[in-house]
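Subject: sequence -> structure tokens, single chain

Hey, anyone have a minute? Need the predicted structure for the following. Not urgent.
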Amino acid sequence: MDRGQAAEDAFHFYAEVRVVSSPRRPALKGRLGAILGITEPTKPDIPPAYAVMLDDHDFLVQFEREELQPTGRDRKQDDY
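Reply:
Had a minute. Here:
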């Protein structure tokens, strides 16, 4: 497995992530949450987007991959 694939594997359902960039919503930078949705683009050159439930939010926020950094921890499905 190459580094790119290993990094992509870190972006899976219930993976804990930190918002590292959010040009459209700068107040969210630094927040933690979990991936609860992943888009499935119809074209191979379009990367997936991630729906994240941020801590202390009761709605999902969509982010591009480069806006998120995995923490290496997973949350439990029962938490949501």
